[in-house]
Amino acid sequence: MRVVFMGTPEFSVPSLEHLVLNQYQVVAVYTQPDKPSGRGCSLVYPPLKRAAETLNLPVVQPVRLKEAEVVSQLAGFHPDVIVVAAFGQILPQLILDMPAYGCINIHPSLLPKNRGASPVAAAILAGDEFTGVSIMLMDKGLDSGPILARAQIPISAQDTTGSLTAKLSLVAAHLLQEVLVHWLRGELTPQPQNETEATSSSLISKEEGEIDWHLPAIDIWRRVCAFQPWPGCYTKWQGKQLKIIEAVHLAEEGTLEVGRVVALLPTAERLEAAFGVHTGNGILGVLKVQLEGKQAMSGVEFFRGQRQFMGAILPY
Questions:
Q1: In the chain, beta strands by DSSP E
Q2: Is the pLDDT score of 268 beyond 80?
Q3: What is the per-residue pLDDT for 227?
Q4: What is the β-pairing status of strands 103-107 and 81-85?
């Protein structure tokens, strides 16, 4: 069984590693081109490339899959199946039709819910209690192909997009092994998605991380979780960006202005929130922050060192 694997971020790494561990013949790994990063603009490898090189697998990094020479090179690997996990490019029909067992996509949501680019963040933003992984047979649409299998996990109050994606990557790796065994034996019947239940998630922009304190505390808290590690949730303090890394939403009512910083007495609900910020509905208790140019620190440490912060009104 000749497998071509396509992916880019950390989410895709466990699935590739499990394929190799289970002795599938991975003939090539496709990932996005290296990208410049940092002040020196040095090239940074995609996480999947690092993993593939560690496993001594050939790596291909096409700028565009639809180029004739790229399609020809891929055909030369004679794949029986192509497995895709957050690759970042749309597969043209010529490639979708290439392998005998089709192109299989691993998507971190319970399809047809949260199709698109940011499914994990979308689940947190919506306040969903559960999310999961779907493995589907790819078609020309965006995450619209028939489903081969799903697996569901709960979303905890402590989950961020980073932590939840890591959990889902392990679920995906195990689910992929089950799917491949039964799919290759002809024991699975792909189930069409219900288009009436479909929702989508778009790419998140850096600007979405700026906090609007008029929003309810629960919505801001969900954004803090959903936008961690990127782009992060932030406000301004004394002309510098202040990232809110960890927080808790409090249902307490108040008559103070939106954006007003208040001291909080420690309780079990507030955990170790030394201060909170009044919102459009309730108070956002702040647990961990990072002031521009400084290391991340607990809200307690920050509040202790910023005497003028008490009573300040943060911009909104």
A1: 2-7, 25-30, 35-37, 42-44, 59-60, 81-85, 103-107, 115-116, 130-137, 147-154, 200-201, 233-237, 240-250, 261-263, 275-278, 283-291, 297-298
A2: no
A3: 98
A4: parallel
User: Residue 43's pLDDT is what?
Assistant: 83
- Coil, strand or helix at 33: coil
Where b means 16+ CB within 10 Å and e means fewer, 231-244 reads ebbbbebeeeebbb
Tokens linked to 235: 């406000």
Crossing angle of the two packed helices 13-21 and 47-54, in degrees rounded to 10: 20
Contact 22/183 with Cβ under 8 angstroms?
no
Whether the CB-CB separation of 259 and 277 falls below 8 Å is answered with yes
Phi, psi of 263 (to 5 degrees): -75, 150
Could you tell me if 31 and 4 are in contact, meaning their C-beta atoms sit under 8 angstroms apart? Answer: no
Helices 161-184/13-21 angle, 10° precision: 40
- 182-231 tens-digit pLDDT: 999 999 999 999 999 999 999 999 999 999 999 999 999 999 999 999 99
Continuous segment of H or E residues that includes residue 305: helix 299-305
- Lookup: tokens for 268: 């079990």
Residue 307: the pLDDT is: 84
Complete domains list, the chain, with CATH: 2-201 (3.40.50.170), 206-309 (3.10.25.10)
Task: Give me the phi and psi of 136, to 5 degrees please.
Answer: -135, 160
pLDDT tens string 29-59:
999 999 887 666 678 899 999 999 999 999 9
Contact 132, 147 (CB under 8 A): no
119 secondary structure, DSSP code:
H
